[in-house]
Automatic annotation (TrEMBL):
<feature type="transmembrane region" description="Helical">
    <location>
        <begin position="76"/>
        <end position="98"/>
    </location>
</feature>
<feature type="transmembrane region" description="Helical">
    <location>
        <begin position="156"/>
        <end position="181"/>
    </location>
</feature>
<dbReference type="GO" id="GO:0140359">
    <property type="term" value="F:ABC-type transporter activity"/>
</dbReference>
<feature type="transmembrane region" description="Helical">
    <location>
        <begin position="18"/>
        <end position="36"/>
    </location>
</feature>
<keyword id="KW-1133">Transmembrane helix</keyword>
<keyword id="KW-0812">Transmembrane</keyword>
<keyword id="KW-0472">Membrane</keyword>
<feature type="transmembrane region" description="Helical">
    <location>
        <begin position="235"/>
        <end position="258"/>
    </location>
</feature>
<feature type="transmembrane region" description="Helical">
    <location>
        <begin position="119"/>
        <end position="144"/>
    </location>
</feature>
<dbReference type="Pfam" id="PF12679">
    <property type="entry name" value="ABC2_membrane_2"/>
</dbReference>
<dbReference type="GO" id="GO:0005886">
    <property type="term" value="C:plasma membrane"/>
</dbReference>
<feature type="transmembrane region" description="Helical">
    <location>
        <begin position="188"/>
        <end position="207"/>
    </location>
</feature>
<protein>
    <submittedName>
        <fullName>ABC-2 type transport system permease protein</fullName>
    </submittedName>
</protein>
Amino acid sequence: MSATPVLRRALREGGRGALGWGIAVVGVLMLYLPLYPSIGANGQMQEIIETLPEGMVNALGYDQIGTGAGYTQATFYGLIGFFILTAAAVAWCSDAIAGAEENGRLELDLAHGVGRQSYLYQAAGGVLLRLVLLAVIAGLVVLGLNSPAQLGIEPIHILGASLALLGVTALSGALALLVGALSGRRTWALGAGAGIAVLSYAVNAVANQSPDLDWLHTLSPYSWAYRTPPLAEGVAAGGLIALWVGVAVLTAAAAVALRRRDVVG
């Protein structure tokens, strides 16, 4: 018997789904980034942004959209890519424990000698590896389009932005994993994971409205990842550490919760 049967099964059965999410990531990047030379690099985009209300521009993070790094951040890493990877992370983590419990697979696997903590950590590892795949795909596509699309992004900053994207979306997934381990209900896990992502984005948008609200950035994982623009200035090490500490703590708490709760199937 394999030492990591749950991890191997997650990767085998989840490979096709991960490929689908990867195609979505590539499609979005191929749709948006090649447009930058025609609508961003010539100042046309910045002129349009200057006609919009300042509050809207700050909320959407469009204040730097006239640069290649700002355009890529505003369109992909801070918006569409953030929601695509969050959706994947939350869906996979909700299925990992709560979904498996609802369809009876969790109870069956535990009856065959797989320890509860081992099960959870293997399931979490399977999700994390698939998320890493999506972040790598995104980083490689941005790197490949960097010169053709005249983005002018330092390659090392693409790595930092991909790590920040991976961390902030993995955090939402880890919360879904914890709620799934506590409740055994997939809908609750989905709601918690999606809810923290939306709340985090909204708090960051509100915090951008006024210097008096700047303290709100400390409450938003989205701000931890992106308050320092990773594509323009490099990723903030403190924010990155906070994200991954949060992922580790939530995953460990999920393992404790699953160990102490009756699995009802």
